[in-house]
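User: Good morning. I'm curious how MU-OXO-diiron would be positioned relative to this chain. Could you predict the structure with it bound?
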Amino acid sequence: MHYVRKVTNDIYWVGANDHRLALFENIHPIPKGVSYNAYLLLDEQSVLFDTIDWSACRQLLDNIEHLLGDKPLDVLVINHMEPDHGASIEEILLRYPKVKVVSTEKSFMLMRQFGFHIEGHELVEVKEGDTMSFGKHEVTFIAAPMVHWPEAMITFDLTDGVLFSADAFGSFIALDGKLFNDEVNFDRDWIDEARRYYTNIVGKYGPHVQHLLAKAATIVDKINYICPLHGPVWRSDFGYLLDKYQHWSTYEPEDKAVMIAYASMYGNTESVAQALAGKLVERGITNVALYDVSNTHVSYLISEAFRVSHLVLASVTYNLGIYPVMHNFLMDMKALNVQNRMVALIENGSWATKSGDLMQDFLDDEMKQMTVLNQRLSIASSLPSSKEEELDQLADAIADSVRE
Ligand code: FEO
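Assistant: Good morning! Here's the predicted structure, ligand included:
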């Protein structure tokens, strides 16, 4: 059964929702699903902007066939060829062999590298500033390298003010009937998954996103719709979305808030983390979030690390090292360029306690602009009541820093 939605008078959403995929990129859980967005323009020429994941290809074909009927598809614009979008290119070429494929040089190179059979079809390479007319609609192409792969571009429809933004401004969560940002409560229901999508998928490439935002700023007054490859189409509240992207891409915290991430083997480190959370709240710091790193997927931890201003890392010592899942969190933060945060450390060990020094070394030597508070709390197996004063001092130091 086809399922399409109108974006403008002659541009349609022809994508699909996926509730079957458990792990996006085979790594990030997506319990609320994801959408793969593709868009079809019906002008003098018909133009498909991007395809979708192979798993949902049939839905795309039904949708296109519903709108085109017996007519051919004239043009296929590929803004981003990563297989969650590009995997259906071949099937489109088989069904519509005369279609002209428009994309970047790198994109065609990667299509060949992935083994897509594109030879024998009309391939048109475009670059920044090139324009193309399809009848009433004229588009211009804007390079968007590393947002999120090197070949990516975005396409701006000058006629309707539609920005086909590729992965930029996308989100996890299946659309399930909704399409536009004003048909969902984004700030209540979507922002956490939008942040988790951005930070884990594009988070590393903040400077590239900044570069793209600077280009977008020059046309922002002409943009009426932002059509990403995942998540809702934006037709209002651009300021809200751009403000989030500004924070995320400059690694500035969104909230004055404390994330306590703890690694606990027998509950003693967890108990101290809980007590610290309570003491922070008693001091008026109520935006506190507590995570057990052993049972929280690291993509959620990364998302929170981008949101908050302060991190508390509480880890047991394990094989004379940092507890492996905490170490993994640190390595993922480094890989995704998390920086410019205040950090407090809690270490635990029953003998040869090492995790505090090792976490400090990692933050100092491997990451950028991470400031570690002087008040480190060291626990020998468990924290006796007699040492509660040290926990109070740590809570005071964190609360003072949050209030600065
Ligand atoms: Fe949704 Fe970079 O692909």
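Residues 258-403 form a domain with the Rossmann fold fold (CATH 3.40.50.360). The mean pLDDT is 97.
Let me know if you'd like a different ligand tried.
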